[in-house]
Specification:
By secondary structure, the protein is mainly α. It contains two helices and no strands.
Length: 63
C-alpha cells in the first residue's frame, strides 16, 4: 500500500512554491466553506506556509 507523504514545513523555495500551489487549488475547490472536508487540510498547509514565511521572509518595519 502506497502512503501519501506527510506534510511538513518546506525547507526550500521549491517546496514552498509547491505547497502554495496546492493551497491555491484547495481554496479554489472549497471557496469560503469552512465546513468543507478539505478545510482542515487548507488550514494545516496555511500554517506551514505561514511558518516558512515568518522564518525566511520576515516583514521588515517601514524605514
Amino acid at each position: 500500500m502506497k502512503r501519501a507523504p506527510l506534510l511538513a514545513m518546506p525547507t526550500n523555495e521549491a517546496e514552498y512554491d509547491r505547497l502554495v500551489g496546492q493551497l491555491d487549488e484547495i481554496f479554489a475547490e472549497i471557496g469560503d466553506d469552512e465546513d468543507h472536508p478539505l478545510a482542515p487540510l487548507a488550514s494545516h498547509i496555511g500554517d506551514l506556509v505561514e511558518s516558512y514565511d515568518e522564518k525566511h521572509r520576515p516583514i521588515l518595519p517601514p524605514l
